[in-house]
Design a protein that fits this description.
heterodimer, A: 249 residues, mainly alpha, 12 helices, 76% helix, 0% strand, elongated, B: 314 residues, alpha/beta, 4-stranded antiparallel beta sheet, disordered C terminus
Chain lengths: 249, 314
């Protein structure tokens, strides 16, 4: 049996989990939509961002949707760890990272479902992107890459946490971080201190990249840092997850 | 060639500054049940973790089915099955799906896999609940499923870490008979337990682990022989009677608090009659009388109790 087929077995297991315990996915899919409705209807008119607010906010909310899915992943990984399931796999003749790969892929696919639903609702609210086919492909590419990066980091957090509860909490900063970026309002409208933070934190170039792709005006000044952050975080998350997986028994 | 299924020598393991295993030597012959007996925190689970490649030893060698655990972990994993201390079952899946998951991850071909799953469900009496999610299972059913999952792939060496902790007496008996059946098929079992009765009932050989060291090793009978043998316990109502009896019975030990006297004896009728005759001769009457043979509890207390004193004497 190859690593690939073991990973597919694990992924199938993750899908069954999602089907049996749909609340976690509801949370991942519905929360971003609720937040979108809230911002667009309640606050949208109060922000002057130069374009239709829905067009401004949708790329940021896509990123938020990725982050909202992470809590469920961290909790699931941790309960596998603390309930001994990972140890069971480790003492079997099973390719080592398969269970982790399964979690990451399930997390990315959940992200894509959440984002598809979000974008659907955004269209109903008047979202009118001017992206070409290539722009859409770029958007999906960035989201998948971000999903992988955040997924590996979350798996590492989940493996290291003491209990499923603390694992869920550990992912909260990742959920909060998009609010302190240019997701909801442009960074230059924020107060000093926060503005600098928002400008330089990893989510801002990623959001600006998504905006660029969706408006048909991608700028390499955003795309390159965005890709660098994603690859860097994915790499760190992966190494951290691997070493925790090997060490913790 | 040796017929050792598990051979361990000089095994050491520490977590940071805390020494958990301090030079363990073990030899388990193929097709036998070996029990590692010890109180909580003695290092039983750590031993299992090192032997099953989950943790690395700091020193010493571990050979499982002839493979070195440090340098050939894959070969070791292919030869063993492990049931951890807590039932590692997937709660959201059904019993059948849990077993199928193990089949999918093992080299068992798909067709044979279906048969294996059905056989295991049948053997462990889980057919009726096979389609129910494991979250609805009782503790005993979870343990049975856990062990069934371990048996997928037919491992020849099985590690069971406290397989009956937390089970009711009936489920415990069921588990024991399952374990006996496994050995009857030629499987080697390495079992940890904190229950002396369990080790006494199941094991061919027992090693007593206390604070990271083996304090005794042998067959249940050999261990029982290591402590003061069979004796007669006489209970009296007054100190005067106790004094009188202690004077006439040579080699006896007194227990003033309980007003009792402990007299060495083989427990046979002839020696008992002689003992009673002697009491009669001096007109001493005892209030109560019992013949005591040591069980593993005595062994355990004698072995680990003395170690505790040693430590506190430092």
């Amino acid at each position: 049996m190859s690593a690939k087929s073991h990973s597919i077995v694990m992924l199938r297991r993750n899908f069954k989990h999602i089907a049996r315990n749909p609340t976690s996915v509801f949370n991942a899919v519905l929360m971003p939509i609720v937040i979108m409705l809230m911002f667009v209807y309640m606050f949208g008119d109060a922000f002057s961002v130069g374009v239709d607010y829905i067009d401004y906010a949708t790329p940021g909310l896509m990123l938020l949707a990725v982050c909202y899915g992470l809590g469920a992943t961290a909790t699931a990984v941790n309960s596998d760890m603390t309930k001994g399931i990972i140890n069971r796999f480790k003492v079997m003749h099973v390719s080592r990272g398969a269970v982790l790969t399964g979690h990451v892929v399930a997390s990315v696919l959940t992200n894509l479902v959440a984002i598809a639903a979000l974008v659907g609702v955004a269209f109903l609210l008047g979202f009118s992107p001017s992206a070409s086919l290539l722009g859409w492909l770029g958007t999906i590419g960035v989201i998948v890459l971000l999903g992988f990066a955040a997924g590996w980091l979350t798996v590492a957090l989940g493996l290291s946490a003491k209990s499923p509860e603390t694992a869920g909490l550990a992912s909260v900063p990742l959920v909060m971080l998009p609010f302190f970026s240019s997701a909801i309002v442009p960074a230059d409208k924020m107060g000093p201190g926060l503005r600098e933070f928002a400008e330089y934190q990893p989510f801002t170039p990623i959001i600006e990249t998504l905006r660029g792709f969706l408006n048909g005006t991608p700028s390499s000044g955003d795309v390159i840092p965005a890709l660098a952050w994603c690859v860097g975080v994915a790499f760190v998350g992966y190494l951290w997850a691997r070493s925790t997986f090997t060490k913790r028994a | 060639m040796t017929s050792s299924a598990i051979a361990v020598s000089g095994l050491r393991k520490a977590y940071k500054d805390k020494v958990v295993l301090d030079g363990i030597d073990l030899d388990v012959r193929a097709g036998t049940i070996f029990s590692l007996l010890g109180p909580n925190g003695a290092g039983k689970t750590t031993t299992v973790n090192v032997l099953t490649t989950l943790a690395k030893a700091d020193g010493g060698t571990v050979r499982i089915a002839g493979h070195d655990a440090a340098t050939q972990p894959k070969a070791v994993r292919a030869a063993i099955g492990v049931t951890g201390q807590f039932a590692a079952v997937d709660e959201l899946l059904t019993g059948r799906e849990n077993l199928q998951l193990m089949v999918d991850l093992s080299p068992v071909p798909a067709k044979a896999g279906k048969r294996v799953v059905n056989e295991l469900l049948e053997r462990f009496d889980l057919v009726e609940s096979a389609q129910k999610p494991v979250s609805t299972y009782s503790g005993g059913m979870r343990r049975k499923l856990d062990l069934a999952m371990t048996l997928v792939g037919d491992p020849r060496i099985i590690f069971l870490d406290e397989p009956t902790t937390g089970l009711d007496p009936r489920s415990r008996r069921t588990m024991w008979s399952i374990i006996r059946d496994l050995v009857a098929d030629g499987v080697t079992i390495f079992l940890t337990t904190q229950y002396l009765e369990e080790a006494d009932q199941l094991a061919d050989r027992i090693a007593v682990l206390d604070q990271g060291r083996l304090v005794a090793q042998g067959t249940p009978d050999e261990l029982k022989r290591q402590i003061p043998g069979t004796h007669v316990r006489l209970r009296f109502t007054t100190v005067a009677e106790l004094d009188a009896a202690a004077r006439v019975l040579n080699g006896s030990t007194r227990d003033d608090e309980a007003l009792a006297l402990r007299v060495p004896s083989d427990g046979g009728t002839a020696s008992l009659r002689a003992l009673l005759d002697r009491l009669d001769e001096y007109a001493i009457s005892a209030d109560g009388f019992s013949v005591q043979t040591p069980d593993l509890d005595d062994v355990f207390l004698a072995l680990t109790g003395s170690r505790t004193q040693e430590v506190s004497a430092k």
